[in-house]
Amino acid sequence: MGTPNPDIELIDKKGLRSDGRKPDQIRPLKIEAGVLHRADGSAYLEWGNNKVLCGVYGPREYNPRRFQQSDKAVVRCKYNMAAFSTSDRKRPGPDRRSQEIGKVIADAFENVILTERYPRGVIDINMEILQADAGTRCAALTAAAVALADAGIPMKGMVSACAAGKVNGVVCVDLDGPEDNFGEADLPIGINHTTGEIVLLQMDGHLSDKEYEEALDMAVAGNKEVLKSQREALMKRFNASLDAQENGGA
Ligand code: ADP
């Protein structure tokens, strides 16, 4: 969130946003499952100008053994932004922001994956941000959920994430780069669609109680749209593997 910039019209006179969206419209979203053959599960996602690749490995035995948990698997999440993913070259490697995002996404999945089925195991979720334009933690979590389903890892329900926020005083869903830079608030929300639980909630900026309620409702509605794209990607993936099996392939 930054200081409002009077030179940039984020909401026009018709109430439309700078990319032509209505306040309650998410950016175009496209997901493909099963894109990496060496990973146990994978997904590629394009959401507005965000591009994210996710590979899941496991469950497998956690080594060295001192890190094992005797009653469940550990979920490890690595969120990484490529050096070329932002307009200024991003310094490669881990930083505080990527560690924080990896941690909140791991916490979200710890509550969703049936980790007790894999004692002493580890599940690795690697999320690579190839192009970033705000909302990358939501995009990464959404791609990771599809990659986990592609890996056949049992979960309590399908999970997605979508943010809402405030731009020029208007509550809007799924902020893009300029809106995130010059808007007043951003509220990323992750949801388990089966249980209705919120698995991720963060907030940057300021919202009144009323705006917060409105933003939460918008983020929940946005998440339902995201779930549709996740379902489509998984249906396509599983239909393709069934076709391949029928034709004698893998
Ligand atoms: P999110 O991507 O989940 O919205 P932030 O609010 O921290 O997370 O970041 C918003 C956007 O700011 C990112 O999507 C990215 O476009 C940009 N950004 C974040 N970190 C950097 C960085 N180190 N260098 C350049 N741009 C960055």
What does this structure look like?
The structure is a single chain. The chain has 250 residues and is of the alpha+beta class. It has a single domain, classed as GHMP Kinase, N-terminal domain (Ribosomal Protein S5, domain 2). 30% of the residues lie in helices and 28% in strands. The chain has four helices and ten strands, in the order E-E-E-E-H-E-H-E-E-H-E-E-E-H. The strands form two sheets. The chain has a five-stranded mixed beta sheet with strand order 1-2-3-5-4. A hairpin with a 2-residue loop joins strand 2 and strand 3 (50-61). The radius of gyration is 19 Å and the shape is globular.
Per-chain topology:
Elements lengths: L28 E5 L7 E7 L2 E12 L12 E8 L14 H15 L10 E11 L4 H15 L8 E9 L2 E4 L3 H6 L2 E8 L5 E4 L2 E2 L3 H38 L4
Parallel strand pairs: 4-5
Antiparallel strand pairs: 1-2, 2-3, 3-5, 6-7, 6-8, 8-9, 8-10
Helix pairs in contact: 2-4
The site of adenosine-5'-diphosphate has 12 residues, from helix 2 and helix 3.
Task: Offer a concise description of the structure.
Helix content is 30%, strand content 28%. The protein is an alpha+beta fold and 250 residues long.
What brief labels describe this structure?
250 residues, alpha+beta, Ribosomal Protein S5, domain 2, 5-stranded antiparallel β-sheet, 30% helix, globular, binds adenosine-5'-diphosphate
Label the overall shape: globular
Number of domains: 1
Task: Provide the structure class.
Answer: alpha+beta
State the strand order across the main sheet.
1-2-3-5-4
User: Which regions are unreliable across 5 or more consecutive residues at pLDDT < 50?
Assistant: none
Biggest sheet: strands, sense, closure? 5 strands, mixed
**Which second-level CATH architecture applies?**
2-Layer Sandwich
Q: Radius of gyration, rounded?
A: 19 Å
CATH topology type: Ribosomal Protein S5, domain 2
Name of the level-1 CATH class: Alpha Beta
Helix content: 25-40%
CATH superfamily: GHMP Kinase, N-terminal domain
Hetero groups bound? Answer: adenosine-5'-diphosphate
Number of helices, where a helix is a run of at least 4 consecutive DSSP H or I residues:
4
How confident overall, as mean pLDDT?
Answer: 95
The span between the termini is: 47 Å
> What's the β-strand tally?
10
